[in-house]
């Protein structure tokens, strides 16, 4: 998978003739998506110490002479495992080995869940990048992560937007992008790459713990699906890629329709115009409308109840939404009102 089955030690000054299949693949991916990691940029590589981010780091180190990047390594110690300080030290040594600047953040308050850890980590990575005027944070998310995320969101009942999550890039702020250049590479390939170049990997003991849903999907669900179809992982990731394009198209069309069916600075939607649109656009317009006016994101049920008002008799209304708003069918409009105002009408 990496070009030769014989392993060879990590060459710290490789030229193009030392490149493996993965070097070529990532180089071509970045060339065809040239906005992802432009030449000459400063990149902050987020390294956990696991096989994916260690593979990512070596690939970027080896490709940088072609691309003129300036690299720095960041590690976040969540303090959630007894070996987390040793893990951080391991990444520090990896950065030293490549002679790269190393930045670490260590959690001071106890992080209770994986979700807490993730949101703290992204905040920490953003702070490091911003303090060093770096515009790109690069992570080692792979095609395997993409397939797992799709399954995870599917069984949580997330809509198409959740199914197409994990995209090549995501803006973290106006000046900072998160970039995932390994999204077309499988975890088996990063593992083979690390073995081939004898790269030192930090094995996270919790990765085998099936009490975590993500681990269970990785260790049990995906292998079961691969027994049914050996290419299941690739197909799932391709589905996520295709859904993303559909989702962007629908979202843009819905945004245009939203502008036509609402009035400036007014929480109203024109029922007759909405009624003529396809159901997929009606749902998305209503989601954008509620997202704009409500203090928190609407759920599926709230969107469906508002959708129902398009054809409902005048004065029909939804249950109150969080924050005290509710939607009302008011002659030609669906109107979103703070609940107390209803009494005055
Ligand atoms: N402790 C860490 N320090 C720095 N980077 C990290 C750390 N943990 C994860 N990363 C980065 O995030 C990538 C994805 O890691 P992992 O799949 O473990 O995270 P996750 O919580 O599932 O992430 P996400 O929610 O973004 O999908 C890694 O390849 C690495 O680039």
UniProtKB/TrEMBL annotation:
Domain tRNA(Ile)-lysidine synthase substrate-binding intervals: 269-316
Keyword Isomerase: no
Xref: CDD domains: TilS_N
Record keywords: ATP-binding, Cytoplasm, Ligase, Nucleotide-binding, tRNA processing
Binding site for ATP: 48-53
Function according to Swiss-Prot or TrEMBL: Ligates lysine onto the cytidine present at position 34 of the AUA codon-specific tRNA(Ile) that contains the anticodon CAU, in an ATP-dependent manner. Cytidine is converted to lysidine, thus changing the amino acid specificity of the tRNA from methionine to isoleucine.
Protein name, as recorded: tRNA(Ile)-lysidine synthase
């Amino acid at each position: 998978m990496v070009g030769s089955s014989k392993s060879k030690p990590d060459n710290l000054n490789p030229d193009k003739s030392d490149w493996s299949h993965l070097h070529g693949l990532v180089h071509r991916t970045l060339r065809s998506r040239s906005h992802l990691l432009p030449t000459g940029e400063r990149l902050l590589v987020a390294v956990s110490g696991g096989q994916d981010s260690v593979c990512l780091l070596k690939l970027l180190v080896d490709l940088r002479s072609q691309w003129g990047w300036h690299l720095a390594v960041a590690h976040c110690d969540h303090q959630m495992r007894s070996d987390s300080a040793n893990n951080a030290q391991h990444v520090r040594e990896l950065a030293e080995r490549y002679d790269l600047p190393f930045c670490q953040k260590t959690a001071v308050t106890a992080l209770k869940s994986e979700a807490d850890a993730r949101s703290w980590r992204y905040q920490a990575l953003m702070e490091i990048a911003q303090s060093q005027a770096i515009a790109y944070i690069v992570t080692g998310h792979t095609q395997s992560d993409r397939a797992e995320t799709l399954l995870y969101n599917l069984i949580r009942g997330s809509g198409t937007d959740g199914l197409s999550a994990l995209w090549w890039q995501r803006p973290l702020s106006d000046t900072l992008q998160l970039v995932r250049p390994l999204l077309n590479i499988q975890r088996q390939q990063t593992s083979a790459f690390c073995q081939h170049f004898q790269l030192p990997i930090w094995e996270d003991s919790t990765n085998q713990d099936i009490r975590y849903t993500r681990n269970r999907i990785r260790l049990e669900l995906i292998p079961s699906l691969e027994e049914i179809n050996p290419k299941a992982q690739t197909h799932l990731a391709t589905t996520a890629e295709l859904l993303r394009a559909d989702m962007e198209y629908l979202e843009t069309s819905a945004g245009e329709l939203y502008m036509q069916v609402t009035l400036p600075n007014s929480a109203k939607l024109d029922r007759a115009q909405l009624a003529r649109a396809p159901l997929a656009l009606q749902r998305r317009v209503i989601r954008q409308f509620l997202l704009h006016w409500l203090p928190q994101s609407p759920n599926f049920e709230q969107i469906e109840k508002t959708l129902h008002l398009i054809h409902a008799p005048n004065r029909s209304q939804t249950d109150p939404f969080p924050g005290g708003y509710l939607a009302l069918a008011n002659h030609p409009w669906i109107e979103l009102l703070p609940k107390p105002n209803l009494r005055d009408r």
